[in-house]
Design goal:
Distance between the termini: 19 Å
Bound molecules: glutathione
Structural class: alpha+beta
Oligomer: single chain
CATH topology of the largest domain: Glutathione S-transferase Yfyf (Class Pi), Chain A, domain 2
Strand content: 5-15%
CATH architecture of the largest domain: Up-down Bundle
C-alpha cells in the first residue's frame, strides 16, 4: 500500500493524520506543502485536490481523500482507535464534528494568525472573538474531562487525536491552559500513549 500525504509540518489537521498513521504502523510518503506561500492554491495541487487543502491523502489506486477527520475515520475503522460499540461510535463522530465546527475554527484560526503569520490584535482584529469562541470550546472540554480519562468510552480514540491536535498547541494561538487542569492532565495521558510522537517528530 503506497500512501502519499500532502501535509504541512505545523498543521494540527495534518498532524492528526500523521499521528494516527504512525500509531497504526502505516508508512506515509510525505509531500511537505508551504501553506503560507499559497502552495495549496497552485494549479498542480488543485488538480490533485480541488479543495486546495491539506491534509490530502492519495491512496495507491489514485483515490484522493480530504478532511482530516474523514481520513482518520477511514483508517481507524475496526481498530483500537475507533470504538466498536454503536453508541460510542456515534459519540466519537459527535466529537469529530464538534472539533471541526466549534474548536478548530477558533483555536486553529487564532494560532494560524499569530504563529504562522505573526499577527497581534492590531493586525488581526478577529483575534478577541476567536479567543472568546476558543475558550468556550476549552470549557466544554474541561467540563467533559472532569470525570473522564478520554473523550469516548474512557479509552484513547481518534476523538482524542482530533481534539489533541490543536489543544496541545493552543498557547501558540494566545490561549492559556493554566485554569484547565483536566485538559492538561488529558494532554499528558495522550502523550503517554504507545507510539505517541510529537508534531515535530513525524
Ligand atoms: N477541515 C479541513 C481543514 C483543512 C485546512 O484548513 N487545511 C489548511 C492547513 S491546516 C490548508 O490546507 N490551508 C491552505 C490553504 O487554505 O491554502 C480538515 O480538517 O482537513
Amino acid at each position: 500500500m503506497t500512501l502519499t500525504l500532502y501535509s504541512n509540518q505545523g498543521s494540527g489537521n495534518c498532524y492528526k493524520v500523521r499521528l494516527l498513521m504512525h500509531q497504526l504502523g502505516h508508512a506515509l510518503t510525505i509531500k511537505e506543502m508551504d501553506v503560507v506561500a499559497g502552495e495549496c492554491q497552485k494549479p498542480d495541487f488543485l488538480a490533485i485536490n480541488p479543495v486546495g487543502k491539506v491534509p490530502t491523502l492519495v491512496l495507491d489506486e489514485g483515490v484522493v481523500l480530504s478532511e482530516s477527520n474523514a481520513i482518520m475515520l477511514h483508517f481507524a475503522d475496526e481498530t483500537q482507535y475507533m470504538p466498536m460499540d454503536h453508541l460510542d461510535k456515534t459519540l466519537c463522530y459527535q466529537w469529530l464534528f464538534w472539533e471541526q465546527y466549534s474548536h478548530e475554527t477558533a483555536i486553529a484560526v487564532a494560532r494560524y494568525s499569530m504563529h504562522y503569520l505573526g499577527n497581534t490584535e492590531k493586525e488581526d482584529p478577529r483575534l478577541p472573538q476567536l479567543w472568546e469562541k476558543g475558550y468556550t470550546a476549552l470549557k466544554v472540554m474541561e467540563n467533559h474531562l472532569k470525570d473522564k480519562e478520554f473523550f469516548v468510552a474512557d479509552r484513547y480514540s481518534i476523538a482524542d487525536i482530533a481534539l489533541f491536535a490543536y489543544t496541545h498547541v493552543a498557547d501558540q494561538g494566545g490561549f492559556d491552559l493554566t485554569a484547565y487542569p483536566h485538559i492538561r492532565a488529558w494532554l499528558d495521558r495522550v502523550k503517554a500513549q504507545p507510539l505517541y510522537a510529537s508534531m515535530d517528530d513525524i
